[in-house]
Amino acid sequence: MAHTVSVWEWSRGQHAHKLLEAKSGAEQVVAVEFHPVDSNTLVSCGRSHISFWKLDTDQRTLSRKLGCLDDDKSSKKSASFEGLVEKPKFMLCIAFTETGDCWSGDSAGNIWVWAGSSNKVSKVMTSCHDGAIYCLCQLPDGSILSGGGKDRIIHSWDTNYNSKNRSFEIPEMLGAIRAITQGKGRQLIIGTTANYILQGALDSRFSVVLQGHADDVWGLATHPCHHQFVSAAHDKTICLWDALTHTAIWRKMLEDDAHSASFHPSGNLVAVAMVTSHWIVVDVVTREVVSAHTEGTESLTCIAYSPDGRFIAVGSRDHCVYVYQVSEDGRKYNRIERCEGHSSGIEHMDWSSDGQFLVSMSADFEICFWIAAICKQVNNPATMRDVEWATQNCTLGFNVCGIWPEGSEGIDVNCCCRAHQRALLAAGDDWGKIKLFSYPANKPKSGYHVSSGHSGGLTSVQFLFNDTRLITSGGRDTAIMQWEIH
């Protein structure tokens, strides 16, 4: 597969367009930068290469010279340095000095120096980091910072290639260093692989200014009476967030990837279902696990307390819904039975307002109604037409039929949620769009307001307890967003 480098005239706003494009070869490109001294030169790097490009806007051409990483094509060593430096598997990052020299960091922890716009190496600084160097950043005083992935260390270098004996190690829980940029004054901004953004200076401490999940976010649960919500992700963590300050109150590491969550009606406990067959109940104040259970061998998909807190239902990919009786203020659980009848894994569930009935929806778009206390299926769904439901998480049903676009094949709408005051319905689709309907949305082509923010399919949408904000999760983009409801 051929990779390309393209140059865009971005400053014209809506009229921005691509000026030209050139093939960069068969190897992956991971970074590209314009030369700060020569505006017609840019440098790109990636798998086993670094390239120096000349831009001619008049002739609309982009020509390339490969950096000379080795002179002997049959050797894995760099002949320029007497065989002492192994040819890198990846060139990962680029920075420029005040004199126009180009520095590049490789996957083995070495820094390569390229004089001016030349494609010839002038120096290699070996073993600067233990493992890959993911970022380089030039500071106003001319020094350059390098950020290591495996060792999580930032080193400072002067223009004579000497270490300035200033370094900082990121705590392991915050992840590896992935990006460094200059902030205000002497402040540095650091991005990590665990989706933390830190701010500080090498000679002082760094503080967390933003944090998130490092893998797919699937579960959201809003607190029944506070501006708080819990997120559950495939990075083996759950987080309790303050919606007003946009900050994490606490984060808890788990043994397995978390997939779904539900608050107990008291707000003191939160139940979490894993991608394994395990589910747990966590005390919101102490963060201690007060109860743990296992259901079968398949992964769990959804979990929900009944409105009165007397029951909890757990949906699984084994086609079953497991129902437990809850006592002692949510600290004791006894399994009643399992609801069997679906022919595919469970996707969504809703409880009736009185906690007597449960409705479940499977991956093959089948809806089943259940008498919760005995796990018996309701054979005549027509008897359920006047039942009042506490939530609307199932994306199929009479009251939500209008959220599906015309000609839909069933993959368009991923999730939905009804506001607590029953006036609005939010739906998230597979293209990152959030649609806000009036509830019920039971007419074809129901009108809606649409917003975009996520880069892929949504996994969950939930209203805060007072319906002033909507919380959304984007799955693979690892993002959680808040939307004000006006």
Provide a concise account of the structure shown.
By secondary structure, the chain is mainly beta. It is 0% helix and 49% strand.
Q: Which key features would you list for this structure?
A:
four-stranded antiparallel beta sheet, 486 residues, mainly beta
List the helices and strands and how they pair.
Blueprint: E1 3-9, E2 17-25, E3 29-34, E4 41-46, E5 49-56, E6 61-66, E7 91-96, E8 102-106, E9 111-114, E10 121-125, E11 133-138, E12 144-148, E13 153-157, E14 163-169, E15 177-182, E16 188-192, E17 197-200, E18 206-210, E19 217-222, E20 228-233, E21 237-242, E22 247-253, E23 258-263, E24 269-274, E25 278-283, E26 289-294, E27 300-305, E28 311-316, E29 321-327, E30 332-339, E31 346-351, E32 357-362, E33 367-371, E34 376-377, E35 413-418, E36 424-429, E37 433-438, E38 448-452, E39 460-463, E40 469-473, E41 480-484
Antiparallel strand pairs: 1-2, 3-4, 4-5, 5-6, 7-8, 8-9, 9-10, 11-12, 12-13, 13-14, 15-16, 16-17, 17-18, 19-20, 20-21, 21-22, 23-24, 24-25, 25-26, 27-28, 28-29, 29-30, 31-32, 32-33, 33-34, 35-36, 36-37, 37-38, 39-40, 40-41
Relative helix content? under 10%
Biggest sheet, strands in spatial order?
A: 3-4-5-6
Number of strands: 41
Overall geometry: elongated
Q: Could you say which structural class the secondary elements and strand pairing correspond to?
A: mainly beta
Number of helices, where a helix is a run of at least 4 consecutive DSSP H or I residues: 0
What's the mean pLDDT score? 92
CA distance, first residue to last residue: 48 Å
Q: Unreliable segments (pLDDT under 50, ≥5 consecutive)? A: 71-83
What Rg is obtained from the alpha carbons, in whole angstroms?
28 Å
Largest sheet composition: 4 strands, antiparallel
Residue fraction in strands: over 45%
